[in-house]
Amino acid sequence: MARPRDTRIDDRVVAAWRALADELPYDDITMEAVAERARVGKPSLYRRYPNKARLAFAASIQQSVPVTAVDTGSLRNDLLEHVAALARSLDLTPRSAWADQLATAIADHDFAGVLSRFDEQPLQTVLGSWDRALARGEVKATVDARTALNDLAGTLIFHVLVRHLDADTTYRTLLVDRFLHGVCAE
Predict the structure, then answer these.
(1) Burial of 2: CB neighbours in 10 Å, binned 0-12, 13-18, 19+
(2) Cα–Cα distances in angstroms (integers) from residue 45 to residues 13, 42, 51, 69, 70, in the given order
(3) CATH code of 67's domain
(4) Shared-domain flag, residues 27 and 85
(5) In a domain? residue 137
(6) Domain that holds residue 45
(7) Tens digit of pLDDT for each residue in 26-57?
(8) InterPro entries this protein is in (predicted)?
(9) What are the φ and ψ backbone dihedral angles of 88, each rounded to 5 degrees?
(10) What confidence tens digit (pLDDT) does each residue in 127-138 have?
(11) Contact (Cβ atoms closer than 8 angstroms) between residue 78 and residue 111
(12) What is the reported pTM?
């Protein structure tokens, strides 16, 4: 029987990645440097993250997940918090890292599945806000929450990563308000 995965190693690897990302350009970070900084063997590192794109993605997604569930009492305010967290994660990860991750996802079906699995935790957090809004009668019961929220995140990601535009407070507020216009109950 295999022994359980040691989450402390995952934490050390992600911390090592972040420290190196603060010191070096993305292209200069090597998996060997991450293993050395994290004080883990390369086989252990590669079992968890078979390439740099997967590790960079894991570190950036962790930054976008709120530590505690957001519950402001309104979907609008909850979404403003969630969208701000996603915008921060987009800003904290070097653009070349995002490019590497997206290119890897396009070329590698397995990695695209990894992206979906990592995305599930932040999506579940936001779905909690949606479920509370549904219970309060704020949103249409006929709207598929998962699809709608992925559309919201995708719009922000496209705005920042593809169009190279800023996701400042004004933009995030307009984005959330436009989104709510389509999903709110009459």
Answers:
(1) exposed
(2) 7, 5, 9, 30, 33
(3) 1.10.357.10
(4) no
(5) yes
(6) 7-49
(7) 889 999 999 999 999 999 999 888 888 878 87
(8) Homeodomain-like_sf, HTH-type_TetR-like_transc_reg, HTH_TetR, Tet_transcr_reg_TetR-rel_C_sf, TetR_C
(9) -60, -45
(10) 999 999 999 999
(11) no
(12) 0.76
Residue that finishes a domain, picked among 16, 33, 49 = 49
Same domain, 29 and 90: no
d(CA 129, CA 54): 28
Name, in order, each residue with C-beta under 8 angstroms of 64's C-beta and a sequence gap of 6 or more.
Answer: 85, 86, 88, 89, 122
- Residue 169 tokens, joined: 């407070």
Token pair of 100 as six digits:
């590497």
